[in-house]
Amino acid sequence: MARGNAFLNKLSIGSVSPQIPVVPGAIDGPAPPGGIAKHDRFEGDVSMTRQDFNIGDDVHFQISLFDEFLSAIEEFGDDNALHGPKSIVNMKVMQEFKFQRFQESQAADKTVSFHSSRIASSYNEAAFILTFFANGTDGLLSKQALTSIFQNQTFAPNWFRRSSPGTFDFIVDTAAEVLAPHPIQPGANVNGVYVLDPTDTSCNAAYSDFVLNNLPHTLNNVTQPTFKKNIQTLLKIVATPFGCPELLPAGPVGQ
């Protein structure tokens, strides 16, 4: 919804695509939607393997950042008879590495943005790695398998998927465990100072941030029947897991 064309129900999994035209009425600006690779709606700052948008390459894999990940495994990882000492990615590895990346971005990027929806996607991503990249045969994520997936974008030899499906709640619960030792308050750097977002307990903060700040506010003015129905359907789908009311989009256009 934030980076696609809800009239067609299509989304680019990269950047701008000729298959995803400008949204009807150009209500999200005159350019085609930017896809999920566009900064600060789904992708964003404090990535595990990409630089922040304002200080470096936010698109391509950064081996220097992945080396930090490997260093965290060396320090906090578990030993394993098959893969060797300090070779298993455990919860402690992810907890410490994720917090380290936040500290680095907060110090280096004077405009770092880490609002509620980005915190949610960032830590859900970490949970996904821990729970779905682990080998289905033993439930362990080895350093070798992690390197194959991240660096080569291939599964390691003798890697098998989970024997049971993972649910949305499973991801959210794991993400909360990753975040728990080092809680991070939603906010952004303003002139190099991290300013906390206002607190709102009326609804899930990540959902509210996504709809109110990341979805173009001009969607409220949609009158085309198919387009309007698609938007209403998608808004309901997004709201349901969070137990929130369906909020009307209120974010900036064309960003």
From TrEMBL:
Question: At the top level of its lineage, which domain of life is listed?
Answer: Eukaryota
Alphabetical UniProt keywords = Heme, Iron, Metal-binding, Oxidoreductase, Peroxidase
PROSITE patterns the record matches: HEME_HALOPEROXIDASE
What Pfam families does the record tag this protein with?
Answer: Peroxidase_2
> What GO MF annotations does this protein's record show?
metal ion binding; peroxidase activity
Report the Gene3D superfamilies cross-referenced here.
Chloroperoxidase-like (1.10.489.10)
Q: What is the lineage of its organism?
A: Eukaryota, Fungi, Dikarya, Basidiomycota, Agaricomycotina
Originating organism:
Sistotremastrum suecicum HHB10207 ss-3
Segments traversing the membrane: none
Q: Cite the Heme haloperoxidase family profile domain residue spans from the record.
A: 1-180
InterPro entries registered for this protein in UniProt:
Chloroperoxidase, Chloroperoxidase-like_sf
User: What protein family does this chain belong to?
Assistant: Belongs to the chloroperoxidase family.
Q: Which PANTHER family match?
A: HEME HALOPEROXIDASE FAMILY PROFILE DOMAIN-CONTAINING PROTEIN (PTHR33577:SF16), STERIGMATOCYSTIN BIOSYNTHESIS PEROXIDASE STCC-RELATED (PTHR33577)
Name its co-factor(s): heme b
Instruction: Locate the coiled-coil region(s) and give their ranges.
Output: none
Q: What is this protein called?
A: Heme haloperoxidase family profile domain-containing protein
